[in-house]
Amino acid sequence: MTQRHDESEPDYRFTLANERTFLAWIRTSLGLIAGGVAVHQLLPDFATESARTVLASSCIGLAAVLSASAYVHWCRVQKAMRRGKPLPRNPLLLLVSAVVLAITGFAAVLVMSE
Predict the structure, then answer these.
(1) How far apart (Å, rounded) are the C-alpha atoms in residues 46 and 49?
(2) What is the mean predicted confidence (pLDDT) over 43-70?
(3) Per residue in 59-79, pLDDT tens?
């Protein structure tokens, strides 16, 4: 990231906090991948093959979106801090909440129907 003349180096604590937030999104992505693989590969008696595939694909798809978006959001926050601008909103919060809620609901239906 090259520094422009209208940018200044933010307090290192804010830069490190931004980095920790990025890493938290990456950890969440890794957890979703692990959950998706586990459901598909380690629970052969859980629901049907297609239901497991949908559940696993949802987890892994959300992980892909999160991991790609985490870096973009990190860059946007870093630029805003360097320029002394307000921090950008993160639309991922609503998306993650909604998709995790849907995955949870689908998993609950599958567990109840066993």
Answers:
(1) 8
(2) 93
(3) 999 999 999 999 999 999 999
* The model's pTM: 0.84
How far is the C-alpha of 13 from the C-alpha of 6, rounded, in Å?
21
Cα dihedral across residues 51, 55, 58, 60: positive or negative:
negative
What is d(CA 100, CA 59) in angstroms, rounded to the nearest whole number? 8
Angstrom distance (rounded) from CA 48 to CA 53? 9
What DSSP state is assigned to residue 90?
-
For residues 76-100, average pLDDT: 94
- Rounded distance, CA 92 to CA 47, Å? 30
* 53-64: b (≥16 Cβ within 10 Å) or e: ebbbebbbebbe
The rounded distance, in Å, linking the Cα atoms of 89 and 109 is 33
Contact 55, 36 (CB under 8 A): yes
Helix, strand, coil proportions of the chain in percent (round to 5)? 75, 0, 25
